[in-house]
Amino acid sequence: MNSDAVDARIIGALMEDGRASCREIARKTSLTAPTVSARMARMMKAGLIKRFVPVLSEDSVRRWVQALIVLKVDPASAERLAGTIARLPEVQAVFMTADQGLCLRVALESVADLQTFLARYLVGRRGVLAVTSSQVVTRVVKDEPPSLAPGSLRMDLRCDYCRGEVTSNRPYTLAAGASRYYFCCKTCRKAYLDRYGARLTKARRTASGERLSIRKDDGLRPSGGPA
Ligand SMILES: [Zn+2]
């Protein structure tokens, strides 16, 4: 399943303010709050949105210097080496390149720490054939994730019954209390309902005001709302 234009509008609003409430996002995107809530839950379940993190101010990180390090490594140990280096707290990013290379971005407290870092962790390390270059970054002109086009993001949404991929942008769903379940097809939803229906109904009774609703999800109406 790919994200659609509705997802893209919500992601755009979240990129501006990751702490915005569903109601605020709904207002900005001209969607309804239940749609925003349902779509956000779906994107998180599918792993498209991994987590919400704070973006620190430039001032608070100014005491750090960044450096870019390019290594030539032994192809046989490149994978292992990349994994080990990635775990170092100074290392922000690790890229493997085609010419037996590893490119690292590291954050250090001072320029002087670059030599210490190289000597301690990289020079002479097994599998490191050479430190091709090491450069301190003097200014960051742009450092952002690629911009998003609607439909460009893949969501790995799994059927809650058979674990198969949910491919439709309008998957079959079940809502019980605060939880929502997704299915690849009508048959899986029916099978799930046959097996767990009693449990879901019980959960519904205990969560007052919530009801078990079954529908073909178009993501545009509140769960169980009027068609
Ligand atoms: Zn299924």
Plain-language structure description:
The protein is of the alpha+beta class. The chain has three domains: 1-48, Arc Repressor Mutant, subunit A, CATH 1.10.10.10; 60-136, Alpha-Beta Plaits, CATH 3.30.70.920; 158-227, no CATH class. It has helices at 5-16, 22-29, 33-45, 78-86, 112-122, 186-206; strands at 65-73, 91-97, 101-108, 128-136, 172-176, 179-183, 213-216. Strands 2-3-1-4 form a four-stranded antiparallel β-sheet, covered by helices on one side. Strand 5 (172-176) and strand 6 (179-183) form a beta hairpin. Helix 1 crosses helix 2 and helix 2 (22-29) packs across helix 3. It is elongated, with a radius of gyration of 24 Å. Mean pLDDT is 84; it is low at 218-227. The site of zinc ion has 8 residues, from loops.
Secondary structure topology:
Elements: H1 5-16, H2 22-29, H3 33-45, E1 65-73, H4 78-86, E2 91-97, E3 101-108, H5 112-122, E4 128-136, E5 172-176, E6 179-183, H6 186-206, E7 213-216
Antiparallel strand pairs: 1-3, 1-4, 2-3, 5-6, 5-7
